[in-house]
From TrEMBL:
<dbReference type="GO" id="GO:0005829">
    <property type="term" value="C:cytosol"/>
</dbReference>
<dbReference type="Pfam" id="PF01381">
    <property type="entry name" value="HTH_3"/>
</dbReference>
<feature type="domain" description="HTH cro/C1-type">
    <location>
        <begin position="26"/>
        <end position="81"/>
    </location>
</feature>
<dbReference type="InterPro" id="IPR001387">
    <property type="entry name" value="Cro/C1-type_HTH"/>
</dbReference>
<keyword id="KW-0238">DNA-binding</keyword>
<dbReference type="InterPro" id="IPR050807">
    <property type="entry name" value="TransReg_Diox_bact_type"/>
</dbReference>
<protein>
    <submittedName>
        <fullName>Helix-turn-helix protein</fullName>
    </submittedName>
</protein>
<dbReference type="InterPro" id="IPR010982">
    <property type="entry name" value="Lambda_DNA-bd_dom_sf"/>
</dbReference>
<dbReference type="GO" id="GO:0003677">
    <property type="term" value="F:DNA binding"/>
</dbReference>
<dbReference type="GO" id="GO:0003700">
    <property type="term" value="F:DNA-binding transcription factor activity"/>
</dbReference>
Amino acid sequence: MAIKPQYFFLMNEKYAQIYTRIGRNLKKRRIELGLTQDQLAKKTSKIDRSKISDIENGKEDFMFSTLLELATALEVDVEELTKNSTSNTFT
C-alpha cells in the first residue's frame, strides 16, 4: 500500500529524501538507456508504468524487492540507484 505523499513527507523527512534520490537516479538511468516508463515496466515482472512514475517522483513507498527488480531491468547495481550524487553516470 502506497503512502500518500503529503503524509509520507511529514512522517520522516530523512526517508523522504532517500526515496526522492532513488527516484531521481532511477529516472536518470532509464533515460540514459533510452527507455520510456512503459518499456521499463515491460522489462519487469510486476511493476506497472504508474508505479514507476510514482517512484521516480518520490511519491511511492516501495519494497526492497521492487528496487532490486528495477535495478536488474536497468542493468545497474542497487547501490548506484541509492547514491547521493547529481552527477551520477551509470555507463
